[in-house]
Amino acid sequence: MQHTLSILLQNEAGALVRVAGLFAARGHNIDTLTVAPTADPAVSHLLLTVRGDNAVLAQILQQTRKLVDVLQVQHATHA
Amino acid sequence: MPLLKPTPAADAEQAIARHPLAGTAMSGADVVVQVLADEGVEVLFGYSGGAILPVYDAVFRHNAEHLKADGSEPMPLVVPANEQGAGFMASGYARASGKVGVAIVTSGPGATNMVTPVRDSAADSIPLVVICGQVSTQAIGSDAFQEAPVSNIMSSCAKHVFLVTAADKLEATLRTAFTIARSGRPGPVVVDIPKDVQNATVVFDGQEELPLPGYRARLRSIEQATLSDAECAAFFQALADAKRPLIYAGGGVVGSGSASLLREFVAAFGLPVTTTLMGIGGFDTTHPLSLHMLGMHGTAYANYAVEDCDFLFALGARFDDRVACSPPQFAPRAKYIAHIDIDPAEINKVKQADWQHVGPLDRALQRLIQYGKAHGHQPVLADWHAHVAALKRNHSMNYDRDSALIQPYAVLEEINRHTQGRAIFSTGVGQHQMWAAQYLDFVEPRHWLTSGSMGTMGFGLPAAVGAQFARRDALVIDIDGDASIRMNLGELETVTTYGLPVKIVVMNNVGDGMVRQWQKLFFKGRFASSDKSLHRKDFVRAAEADGFAWARRLENREELASTIAEFLAFDGPSFLEVMIDPDAGVYPMVGPGASYSQMITGEFIPSRAVAKTGEAVASDAF
């Protein structure tokens, strides 16, 4: 199952690397990734899609929430 | 800490006490040292180099200007042989003290040598702050001398990394690094500081921290989580329905300072306790309800109790593969699993919990004790206690006591007779580590320092050095192996340089014993690169060369007791190499990916099942 995650991220040095690195280190392939600015210049909006069952999704959501730069993670959609 | 917390009695107009140096202009390097001093840092571990020189100079000046009444430095900087040593010293210090360990290294190789201790600390949830020098901001990305992409490298293995690109953020960043390292699930935080930032002049604030809205909001909700009456009632209802409840306690019990509350919980409700490797010391191993360690090399009686329990209460533990070797078959009769952890990602990661709580363990235990007592919960566990006592009696640890060769277990039993659960022990990784975990007693937490999750050979000696700085008066003993100690043998010199009375035991089985054990089991005894009988190292002479006045080799079992007594009694650093039976194995053993019912107990520990014969096959399990 493909899942879209919506992540709000603080614009710090290396913050994007830490998100991408977490997914890679835990064996997830990021299928698509877009990064866009938000109204707050200190915050970026990431949209990324990954595949996996519900347990896999729950675990990667929890792990993403442990990243210090991450403000918010939401499971946007699944197809 | 000179930062005074405002009290109701304090001047109402001055809500927060100002730092005496607030508003003072100083260099970035001086800011670093001032924040360290404010955080209560009492020892630093590190190796200098070009990109960190301004900070080293600031440490030197700080120490010279703030000598203590006894003439000692307030923040001595302990120099290892290699930066990895500094990292493990900081880790040993943190593990033994419960405080944040601090290491300071230079850019490039200094920082990359620190990668292993950083990953090791993250995996064992140990709070560190690692400060790395970095090339100047304008040189970053130019392949400059001693440049490495530390932020990228450390991002994969630290709890968090900061690359300080603006001098005016340095103070808040470093202070925040301490907050992150010690809060929630503790871990290592790396602060990468370009040399120009160290040299820049900034105005000191005295209390500034970074806002980190996401992290702080999540932390607050976890730290404020409390158990409702309904949750407590559900817990005690399930406990009342259970006949064989068991506590499985992990490193979180030690890390959160909950050992005394665990003891209180056990006193109130009578649950027996088994701990993980990291949880050793979280519960007094000499307590009648202690089952010692569970898992791949856990005691047979602990593993049988896990097989038999119908209620499992996991505290600050994460069902890792050395415990839940085969998750579906782990605690197969447990009808109810309750799990408390500070990290939400550990709940339901490996094993589905029926009852869960994410929050500080000390408060959760306190609340459960209070609720259980108030509602008169008193589980009737006489049969279970008798069963557990029988397991301990019938499947106790044992070995070949008649062998002419020195048995490693006998060495540990003899040391244990002297230390009585009161000494601090560090270890390397491998057979000697497991034997030490099995045969030594620990009455209190923070006395057992071992590289649990990462399993880093070479951890023992530098960790012992760090622990001795944390506990100057304690007896600190490094139980090491010949292969493990080789990895950081250079730190022998650090022991004598700083006059530390560390005791080092090398159990020499002439090779990588644990690797050989697996090669015997899974590779038909082909000892690929694990036999070191052709190595010509003379460990005793190596220790003597590094200034050990007491360095001996023990080869006869008749001299075991007298040699160990002399070794431990020596006033100062001492080094004992013991030539042990090279074929001694670690038993019990639950094979990788196997269930506890398939546990091999070896020749000397009675098993309650007839082990299947036939050769084990190599598998992908590790």
From TrEMBL, chain A:
It comes from the Bacteria. The keyword Transferase applies. Pathway: Amino-acid biosynthesis; L-valine biosynthesis; L-valine from pyruvate: step 1/4; Amino-acid biosynthesis; L-isoleucine biosynthesis; L-isoleucine from 2-oxobutanoate: step 1/4. GO terms for cellular component: cytosol. Pfam families: ACT_AHAS_ss. InterPro entries: Acetalactate_synth_ssu (IPR004789), ACT-like_dom_sf (IPR045865), ACT_dom (IPR002912), AHAS_ACT (IPR039557), AHAS_small-like_ACT (IPR054480). GO terms for biological process: isoleucine biosynthetic process; L-valine biosynthetic process. Catalyzes the conversion of 2 pyruvate molecules into acetolactate in the first common step of the biosynthetic pathway of the branched-amino acids such as leucine, isoleucine, and valine. Dimer of large and small chains. PANTHER family: ACETOLACTATE SYNTHASE SMALL SUBUNIT, ACETOLACTATE SYNTHASE SMALL SUBUNIT 1, CHLOROPLASTIC. This is Acetolactate synthase small subunit. It comes from Dyella monticola. The gene is ilvN.
UniProtKB/TrEMBL annotation, chain B:
Residues 234-368 form the Thiamine pyrophosphate enzyme central domain. One of its GO terms (biological process) is isoleucine biosynthetic process. Its cofactor is thiamine diphosphate; Mg(2+). Binds 1 thiamine pyrophosphate per subunit. Binds 1 Mg(2+) ion per subunit. Residues 26-147 form the Thiamine pyrophosphate enzyme N-terminal TPP-binding domain. Keywords: Amino-acid biosynthesis, Branched-chain amino acid biosynthesis, Magnesium, Metal-binding, Thiamine pyrophosphate, Transferase. It comes from the Bacteria. InterPro entries: Acetolactate_synth_lsu (IPR012846), AHAS_TPP (IPR039368), DHS-like_NAD/FAD-binding_dom (IPR029035), THDP-binding (IPR029061), Thiamin_PyroP_enz_cen_dom (IPR012000), Thiamin_PyroP_enz_TPP-bd_dom (IPR012001), TPP_enz (IPR045229), TPP_enzyme_TPP-bd (IPR011766). Its EC number is 2.2.1.6. Pathway: Amino-acid biosynthesis; L-isoleucine biosynthesis; L-isoleucine from 2-oxobutanoate: step 1/4; Amino-acid biosynthesis; L-valine biosynthesis; L-valine from pyruvate: step 1/4. It catalyses: 2 pyruvate + H(+) = (2S)-2-acetolactate + CO2. GO terms for molecular function: acetolactate synthase activity; flavin adenine dinucleotide binding; magnesium ion binding; thiamine pyrophosphate binding. GO terms for cellular component: acetolactate synthase complex. Gene3D superfamilies: 3.40.50.970, TPP-binding domain (3.40.50.1220). Residues 428-578 form the Thiamine pyrophosphate enzyme TPP-binding domain. Belongs to the TPP enzyme family. This is Acetolactate synthase.
